[in-house]
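Because showing beats explaining, we let one protein speak, sequence and backbone structure tokens together, and leave readers to judge.
___
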Amino acid sequence: MASNGFTLSSYLARLIAALVLVFATYNPSGYSYYHWLEQSLTDFNPLVALAGVVLLIGWVMFIRATLRSLGALGIILALAFFGSLLWLVIDWGWVSPDNVKVISYIILALLAGVLATGVSWSHIRRRLTGQIDVDEIEDNN
């Protein structure tokens, strides 16, 4: 029987999945689906197509879960939180605003953080408030 407890490791597993999705799709290193697709536009093959479909499925799952759990206001607040965090890191001098590559990595990691929070939010809210989210299903009887 599966445990109903949501732990830090539960969130970290979702965060790792979101990081893999985001960084596999694009990253500044040049090793990503975006770069692979760009190089194979003249020789597009089924493997590139399959990888794109798998990534698209991942994005749809994460974005849909995030939209449903956080809503528009929640996403705006999450982006504001993570954007302020980036601003703080730059303001404290930990990262130079001229270092586009590092800032790109940070923004991609923050995007993964928003997605991981979105797919975890129902569990987090239940732990914080005791409230349970329930999806309504229409009965056609």
Observations:
- The first helix runs from residue 8 to 25.
